[in-house]
Design the sequence.
């Protein structure tokens, strides 16, 4: 007894053509993805010394226990993978002052200026979430 019905030889070819068309349209869209940063994200220079201890804008700071570090391609990174590197990033802080989110920036994101580096700047400037730009008063 046959458990699988014989398929037409063109069925596999048409399935491959559909998959190829979907992949061809999905890849360029993924490459053009823009990340949306929250309005509380600040820009700073982080030196990853001995995790969870870091240097943020030349001052001692600490990463939160559940920190999320996003690479330029938006993938997650472990703290130890960045030890010894100094990078310009966007970051957010918890109410206690611990850094809970870090985004490593692409060249395009780094070129977006101005971007606040202090909480006072973020509170006094205007943020447009749609275009991901800040405007000074």
Sequence:
């Amino acid at each position: 007894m046959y458990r699988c019905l014989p398929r037409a030889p063109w069925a596999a070819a048409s399935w491959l053509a559909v998959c190829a068309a979907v992949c061809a349209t999905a890849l360029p869209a993924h490459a053009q993805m823009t990340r949306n940063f929250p309005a509380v994200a600040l820009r700073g220079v982080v030196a990853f010394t001995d995790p969870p201890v870091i240097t943020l804008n030349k001052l001692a700071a600490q990463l939160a226990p559940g920190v999320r570090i996003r690479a330029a391609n938006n993938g997650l990174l472990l703290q130890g993978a960045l030890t010894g590197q100094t990078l310009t990033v966007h970051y957010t802080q918890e109410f206690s002052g611990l850094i809970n989110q870090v985004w490593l920036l692409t060249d395009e994101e780094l070129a977006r200026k101005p971007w606040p580096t202090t909480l006072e700047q973020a509170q006094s400037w205007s943020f447009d979430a749609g275009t991901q730009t800040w405007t000074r008063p």
Remarks:
- The mean pLDDT is 85.
- The beta strands are 42-50, 53-56, 59-70, 76-77, 86-93, 99-104, 126-128, 133-135.
